[in-house]
Inverse folding.
């Protein structure tokens, strides 16, 4: 059985819009990936717990509430505490330009604003995961 | 790596990673399965199946919740859930959304939830699911719930790998009931009419009971919508009537009927053990799983042994009627000397 890319798409925080998250989830599925979708209003603990149990390669966080500077570091902290320090984290939603460098320094690989093409998201994820698998092999 | 130690100490990262290895059928996964296999066979394996949207995930959640919060002062049981969803035949990808309904279980260390895609093709679901169950069994979970979408064959597959099979229906299916009847009657140990808050629940219960031909049997009696007492296994043993499939009502979103359902699940397990049927089913289960493994392995080996060009070449001849199917078979799948004979001959030398 071939290795499949497994991705958690999560919506932490209190905003109730998951259209964007669902669009990305479907695009990733159509690109041949297995997408675990957990629904709205997840706490950081719930996100990390799902990422752990599902042993995902990447976690995509959709955040529209503006609480990204609180939610993202907490989730990354929990992922690391669980031993999942190699999991790729990407963030989508309404993220002001000025916050991006700090998010990246926390360990976020990519940040996507509204209107990002899903093709780009898929290419990025594939590229990062392939690179990681290559590294593991060496 | 000491997988048994890691699993039994409740190392959740180890459980999750081993599930991935097993699903991807890696050499490490196979080696780990060899190691853990002697430690399996302890969990109660419960399958939950039914059409999409009937409330399987919600119900599985409530059964697990009832295990974790027993009303009768018993010790809580640990639960693992495997939720299987179909792989898209077009892309090979999947959206696994069962966790959306399982929020009630979050933050509970006594619960482990894993989503799995069918990954299509020959025995894939069967093999990977059987092996995922082994991992969770060796990890010491008391109950393992496997949710699968009921669609023809997969219903039968799930029943062949679990001990207690729950088939879930929802009101308003009406005529559809006839369509699923054949499969259901074969495999259900317990029938549940979920969404009993919706109109038409009574008719669905009646229709299912009629199909099961329960007549006035005690297990089928409903009292205020819920079965009174689960039939005691002793009664089965005495009268030797076997297990009579009960039809139960639940309202998973209101957590109604779940404790009763769990009691029935337990009663069925006890029945299986006391009647000796558990050993019988286990024997059948092992034979079937091994048979599938043999088929899958032989096909894989054969695919590796013949190049696509060679297959193409022979197929062309078949197409041109230069070869018959059996002649093509002789060329592509020649009879080989079974390894045992070879080894015997070697020993004789
Ligand atoms: N009215 C009602 N809706 C329910 C009940 N149980 C589940 N649902 C809803 O049915 C839908 C499908 O449930 P889900 O558990 O995902 O079904 P599955 O596809 O069989 O796993 C969801 O919207 C649930 O909220 C119930 O007892 N009553
Ligand atoms: Mg479901």
């Amino acid at each position: 059985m071939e290795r499949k890319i497994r991705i958690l798409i999560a919506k932490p925080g209190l905003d109730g819009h998951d259209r964007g998250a669902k669009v990305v989830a479907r695009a990733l599925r159509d690109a041949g990936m297995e997408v675990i979708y957990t629904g709205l209003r997840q706490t950081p603990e719930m996100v990390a717990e799902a990422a752990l149990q599902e042993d995902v390669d990447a976690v995509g966080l959709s955040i529209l509430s503006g609480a990204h500077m609180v939610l993202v570091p907490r989730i990354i902290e929990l992922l690391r505490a669980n031993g999942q320090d190699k999991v790729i984290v990407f963030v989508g939603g309404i993220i002001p330009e000025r916050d991006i460098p700090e998010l990246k320094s926390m360990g976020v690989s990519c940040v996507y604003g509204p209107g990002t093409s899903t093709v780009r998201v898929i290419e990025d994820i594939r590229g990062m995961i392939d690179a990681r698998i290559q590294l593991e092999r060496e | 790596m000491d997988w048994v130690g890691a699993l039994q100490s409740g190392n959740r990262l180890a459980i999750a990673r081993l599930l991935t290895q097993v699903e991807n059928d890696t050499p490490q996964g196979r080696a780990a399965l060899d190691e853990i296999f002697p430690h399996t066979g302890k969990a109660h394996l419960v399958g939950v199946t039914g059409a999409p949207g009937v409330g399987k995930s919600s119900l599985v959640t409530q059964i697990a919740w009832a295990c974790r919060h027993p009303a009768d002062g018993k010790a809580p049981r640990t639960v693992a859930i495997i939720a299987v969803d179909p792989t898209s035949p077009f892309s090979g990808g999947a959206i696994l959304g069962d966790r959306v309904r399982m929020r009630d279980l979050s933050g509970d260390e006594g619960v482990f939830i894993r989503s799995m895609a069918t990954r299509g093709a020959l025995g894939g679901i069967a093999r990977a699911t059987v092996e995922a169950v082994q991992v969770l069994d060796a990890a010491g979970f008391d109950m393992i719930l496997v949710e699968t979408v009921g669609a023809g064959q997969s219903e039968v597959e799930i029943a062949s790998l679990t001990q207690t099979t729950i088939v879930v229906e929802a009101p308003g299916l009406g005529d559809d009931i006839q369509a699923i009847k054949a499969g259901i009657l074969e495999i259900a140990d317990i029938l549940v009419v979920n969404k009993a808050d919706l109109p038409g629940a009574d008719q669905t219960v009646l229709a299912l009971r009629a199909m099961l031909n329960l007549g006035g049997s005690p297990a089928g009696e409903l009292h205020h919508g819920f079965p009174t007492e689960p039939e005691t296994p002793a009664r089965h043993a005495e009268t030797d009537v076997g297990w009579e499939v009960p039809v139960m009502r639940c309202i998973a979103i209101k957590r109604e009927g779940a404790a009763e359902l769990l009691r029935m699940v337990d009663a069925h397990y006890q029945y299986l053990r006391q009647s000796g049927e558990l050993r019988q089913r286990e024997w059948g289960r092992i034979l079937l799983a091994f048979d599938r493994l043999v088929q899958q392995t032989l096909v894989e080996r054969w695919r590796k042994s013949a190049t696509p060009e060679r297959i193409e070449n022979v197929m062309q001849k078949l197409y041109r009627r230069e070869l018959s199917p059996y002649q093509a078979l002789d060329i592509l799948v020649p009879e080989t000397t079974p390894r045992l004979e070879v080894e015997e001959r070697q020993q004789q030398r």
The longest strand of chain B covers residues 44-50.
